[in-house]
Amino acid sequence: MLAFPVALFLFFFSAISAHLITLGGESTECFFENLHKDDKLTVSFQTDSEDGEYGIRFHILDPAGRFLVNEQSTSFGEFQITSQMDGTHKYCFQNVTPLVRLFTKPQFASHLKFVSFNVHGVVYVSDEDPDHQDPMERQVRELSELLEAIRDEQEYIVARERMHRNTAESTNSRVKWWSLIQSGIIVAVSVFQIYWLKRFFEVKRVV
């Protein structure tokens, strides 16, 4: 009877745990999972940054070095693979600074990206007949997958809200400065017109 509460706790703990890494300019962080053939692995992540550039490179390699996933520029996602062979599989997050940013902001420290990721759905295929597996264990696994889906959706919503808020604040800042510039131009033109009309009538009165 003790096995079920322990298994339930482990499933719940894995469902709510997440990892956070910081990627400096042009840096790469890799992680490894030992899988058997037909095992499944799911990785989901969200990115954030200080300079508004959210895209990173993400890839998963099999033990032979072949790409199973190869995303060149993405800020969030969920990727699942099914192992085709036994061995160590590698997944990596890479911060790539856009070429324009290299010329405008050469300091790599200004291109920090923060990646929150989860490794879930690691399903190890059992040699046991699925029809004879413990029904309680199957239900716990299904509940764990449901919790993971809910958590991923919440993280996605929070990340998208943060990105939209940053975009809105940046747009508001540009609108504010453009309004101030327009006001300054209007004031300058008005002062010039008053000065020009005053000079015009003074000259006309002298004549």
UniProtKB/TrEMBL annotation:
Single biological process term from Gene Ontology: protein retention in ER lumen
Localisation: Endomembrane system; Membrane
GO cellular component terms listed in the entry, alphabetical order: COPII-coated ER to Golgi transport vesicle; endoplasmic reticulum; membrane
SUPFAM superfamilies, per the entry: Supernatant protein factor (SPF), C-terminal domain
Alphabetized PROSITE patterns for the sequence: GOLD
Signal peptide feature range: 1-18
SMART domains found in the cross-reference section: EMP24_GP25L
Membrane topology: Single-pass membrane protein; Single-pass type I membrane protein
Residue ranges occupied by any GOLD domain in the UniProt entry: 28-121
Keywords: Membrane, Signal, Transmembrane, Transmembrane helix
Top-level taxon: Eukaryota
Segments passing through the bilayer: 177-197
Family to which this protein belongs: Belongs to the EMP24/GP25L family.
Protein name as annotated: Endosomal protein P24B
Organism name: Neolecta irregularis (strain DAH-3)
